[in-house]
Design a protein that fits this description.
Jelly Rolls, 13 helices, single chain, 30 strands, globular, Immunoglobulin-like, eight-stranded parallel β-barrel, 3 domains, TIM Barrel, 605 residues, 23% helix, alpha+beta, disordered N terminus
Length: 605
């Protein structure tokens, strides 16, 4: 390899700040009960007089039969705006749990977070952050975690010697320097272009919306590689042959000839140049106690698409989020999946069929863990199921019963600020261990930031950009973003296109920048600062490297970058002002806050 260094180094510089070492937390050693700390969401935290590094400590403890609340232990401290702080705490777990330290704003938005390794020895969690406009910071401890998701899982963990203080001069200087290292000689994995897909919803991308061709044009220009139909939850209330709902009083409350049917969806796929993925209705027949009817309907759909019409639909998903269906257990879903999969492959052996499950390999629990007292009319069944995820693991049951019939492990992920790449990687490892002689694909058929996350459009877009990088690195093969378009602010503000005009949102520009420029091989890349995330790919011929750099810092003056010893071919920058060319001076450029840079480099031969 010539024309580019084997190791590419990026240096990031910001301006200096003052610092003092005072600890802003009261009772940081947890030597006894304190009015400054408060437990939220469950009584699993207690200060104890011994067991700490040198005296007392805070213990988190939970039994296996308790509910999965979002429980944490907090103290709020006053901080100065536009100032750098260091947060730290000593933690240890039971060998399984991975305690989390999180710093949040007054409105519960994550400023920074750190997650422990699953070790039974004391370890220091430490993270540096900038306050921005914040005048108060929530110092939060989560004891029941096994991943970035801040859950309340069973087990025991301990905390000691918590600290929140302004950064000293050395720490401030260290924060001003960020090193991103790309190893152009280490290819980690091949990248499947079908990652860049979108959900097409039959009642939203309807006849009227598709008539002018703008949606198809946007998706073609992205380019969109995969389209999922007819939807998520809506698919479990949908009959493909008639284009009608089983229950019109249930979401999405709209059906009929004005909505998009199978033929119209396939026409959209051809116009876009995207692979189709279809979601089979399992829930209706399961609730009626007539799985044979559901199997017949699914087989008829395969026959219609691939034998009668020649649509060659390769990817099929059996049901949607069955692990959140209140009265379905893992064993019941796995058994039903086998019946569907074998019958459908008898019609067309070439199809690939996905089984759905939670993003965490330890899984959601059995449905019967939800107390009957909470199963009231109007109750949010999915939220109840998430709350009581304490039963048997979901994926192990699928591996045991349905593993031989699975081609894809289908997951959904609506994440917060920490991302979920470690859970995806854990699922990838588990699949490889369980099935060493064949590769089961991971299909992320719904993903976005969670609807409870409050952020500006560019902050959302940068979280989505980082998620793309993390999911691909974690092992996701296929993906479809949720949603393409949607009414209301809850999901409408997080969609790719505007519902009324189909105008691109910042999220669309992120997807387009990645999908249009990503290479076919993932390269090894590291960064030593949490607010800068880098992702590098190489073209199939090895001649071009595409480096994506996400700056999630809110520093008004931006970040100065210095890229040395490389041959830069071009650069693009996506920020609040839109998409523009990135200019360089001797390998240097300034990257604004909440922005995504793409640097193309010639790798030569």
């Amino acid at each position: 390899m010539t024309g580019i260094a084997r190791l590419l180094l990026l240096t990031v510089a910001t301006t200096g700040i003052a610092a003092t070492p005072e600890n802003l937390l009261r009772d940081p050693g947890f030597d006894g009960p304190s009015r400054y700390w408060a437990a939220t969401g469950g009584k699993y935290y207690a200060a104890q007089p011994d067991g700490g590094r040198a005296g007392g400590c805070l213990r988190y403890q939970k039994t296996t039969d308790a509910a999965n609340e979002n429980a944490h232990f907090d103290q709020t401290a006053e901080v100065e705006a536009d100032t750098t702080y260091v947060a730290s705490v000593w933690v240890k777990g039971d060998g399984k749990l991975r305690p989390v330290l999180r710093i949040a704003s007054e409105d519960w938005q994550t400023l920074t977070a750190a997650i422990a390794e699953p070790r039974a020895e004391w370890q220091l969690l430490r993270t540096t952050f900038e306050t921005g406009k914040q005048r108060k910071a929530r110092f939060q401890l989560f004891g029941g975690c096994v991943s970035e998701r801040r859950e309340t899982l069973p087990g025991t963990s301990w905390f000691d010697d918590a600290s929140l203080r302004r950064a000293d001069a050395t720490e401030a200087a260290a924060l001003r320097q960020c090193r991103v290292t790309v190893d152009a000689g280490t290819v980690l994995r091949e990248i499947n272009p079908l990652f860049f897909g979108v959900n097409a919803l039959f009642w939203i991308e309807d006849d009227a919306s598709l008539r002018d061709g703008i949606i198809a044009q946007r998706l073609r220009e992205m380019p969109c590689r995969l389209l999922r139909f007819p939807g998520g939850t809506a698919a479990e209330n949908y009959h493909w042959r008639t284009g009608t709902l089983e229950n019109r009083k249930r979401f999405p409350f709209k059906d009929g000839p004005a909505t998009t049917d199978t033929d119209e969806f396939m026409k959209l796929c051809r116009e876009v140049g995207a692979e189709p993925m279809l979601v089979v209705n399992l829930e209706t027949s399961f609730l009626k106690g007539d799985l044979d009817a559901g199997v017949r309907e699914a087989c008829d759909w395969v026959r219609y698409c691939n034998k009668e019409k020649g649509y060659n639909v390769r990817y099929w998903e059996i049901g949607n989020e069955q692990y959140l269906l209140t009265n379905m257990t893992a064993d019941q879903y796995a058994t039903a999946f086998v019946r569907f999969a074998r019958a459908m492959k008898a019609v067309d052996p070439a199809i690939r069929i996905g089984a759905t499950g939670p993003e965490s390999v330890i899984g959601a629990g059995a449905a019967d863990r939800v107390p009957k007292s909470e199963l009231k009319p109007g109750a949010d069944l999915k939220e109840l199921k998430r709350k009581y995820r304490t039963g048997p693991a979901w994926w192990p049951a699928l591996f045991r019963i349905a593993g031989a019939d699975m081609d894809m492990a289908v997951i959904h992920n609506y994440f917060g600020a920490l991302g979920m790449d470690r859970e995806v990687a854990a699922l990838r490892r588990s699949l490889d261990e369980q099935f060493p002689n064949r590769r089961i694909l991971i299909a992320l058929t719904e993903w976005n930031i969670g609807k409870s996350v409050q952020a500006s459009p560019m902050e959302q877009a940068m979280m989505q950009a980082e998620a793309i990088a993390r999911f691909i690195a974690g092992g996701v093969d296929l993906a479809t973003f949720w949603p393409l378009r949607f009414p209301g602010r809850e999901w409408g503000d997080r969609s790719l296109l505007d519902l009324q005009t189909s105008a691109p949102r910042a999220s669309y520009e992120v997807m387009k920048l990645f999908s249009s420029n990503i290479g076919s091989r993932l390269l090894k890349v590291e960064t030593d600062k949490s607010f800068v995330h880098a992702f590098a790919t190489q073209s199939a011929d090895g001649r071009t490297i595409a480096l994506f750099v996400v700056n999630r810092s809110n520093r008004k003056d931006g970040i100065e970058m210095n890229l040395k010893n490389v041959s830069i071919a071009s650069g693009r920058l996506l920020c609040g002002d839109g998409l523009r060319d990135l200019t360089f001076e001797s390998g240097r450029w300034r990257q604004p806050p909440q922005s995504l840079a793409l640097i193309k480099m010639s790798a030569g031969r």
